[in-house]
Amino acid sequence: TYLCLGKKKLLLVYVIVLLLAARTAVCPGRFWHMTVAVQGQSPCHIVLTQRTPAVTRSQPRSTQGPDVAYKVSKDAQLSAPTKQLYPGDAFPEDFSILATVKPKKGSQSFLLSMYNEQGIQQLGLEVGRSPVFLYEDQTGKPSPEDYPLFRGVNLADGKWHRVAISVHQQTITLILDCKKKINQKLLRSPNPIIDTKGIIVFGTRILDEEVFEGDIQQLMIVADHRAAYDYCEHYSPDCEVPVPDRPQNQDPNTEDDVSSVTGLWCPQWRKLSGAVRAPRPFPPARLPPAHHPAARPPAPEGKTPTGT
């Protein structure tokens, strides 16, 4: 299933985090979906689901439609091999990360973490007060003291936020709620590489005690740095604006109890209809040493990455 944005084709990889009852919503009448979008040759749908009460639907603001978000508790443990999201493809050099979230008020955690084959964190998006964007390419750049820090931003104020991150060359731009734009330097190598042989972790970092708690409606990685600037138009419009047409073959079940397993669905593979096949276990990540910068970045100017 492809979504055409202009003349670019973006491969939608659905990461559907479920389970138990209740509803929520940012806007009435919209379908919830959590996706990771990447450029690719064929449509592959990732279903990453765990039957657990740690992820539940939240209460809707309105009963007018099926717009749904999910409440994530501190007990949620969600991860997958990066290769499942990028089968045969390199991670894009320039990209956007798009999210619609409402973290628990006063919390500080990583919404998304990506590790390489050696268990070293390469990418991380923190949500909270003065959040850090963690990025480390194959040469170890930028150094931890140069991680972009967005001072004056508080994503954990108890409100819904549309967060759009654009990474282009050596610049990262945060677009908050479609209005506030903050540019920072991203001092990476001229030809940066992010390893796709490791794992992606949702809601925390390896070795971190802090975990994401709150509501989430959408999380996307788009292989186009310009997508962040179009987030509120093409991906998450204002509540009074009709949502753009999207593929709905992975819409969440409206029943109270929904479950599935980790699987990879591509046209050339056996179709996963009705009953899905059991997942293949993936090897545990090799943890970075406690002293490694990826284990915990140093505090830039008095701020710890997981503090307030």
TrEMBL record:
<keyword id="KW-0677">Repeat</keyword>
<feature type="compositionally biased region" description="Pro residues">
    <location>
        <begin position="280"/>
        <end position="300"/>
    </location>
</feature>
<feature type="domain" description="Laminin G">
    <location>
        <begin position="93"/>
        <end position="224"/>
    </location>
</feature>
<dbReference type="InterPro" id="IPR013320">
    <property type="entry name" value="ConA-like_dom_sf"/>
</dbReference>
<feature type="domain" description="Thrombospondin-like N-terminal">
    <location>
        <begin position="39"/>
        <end position="225"/>
    </location>
</feature>
<feature type="region of interest" description="Disordered">
    <location>
        <begin position="277"/>
        <end position="308"/>
    </location>
</feature>
<dbReference type="Pfam" id="PF02210">
    <property type="entry name" value="Laminin_G_2"/>
</dbReference>
<feature type="region of interest" description="Disordered">
    <location>
        <begin position="240"/>
        <end position="260"/>
    </location>
</feature>
<keyword id="KW-0732">Signal</keyword>
<dbReference type="InterPro" id="IPR001791">
    <property type="entry name" value="Laminin_G"/>
</dbReference>
<protein>
    <recommendedName>
        <fullName>Laminin G domain-containing protein</fullName>
    </recommendedName>
</protein>
<dbReference type="InterPro" id="IPR048287">
    <property type="entry name" value="TSPN-like_N"/>
</dbReference>
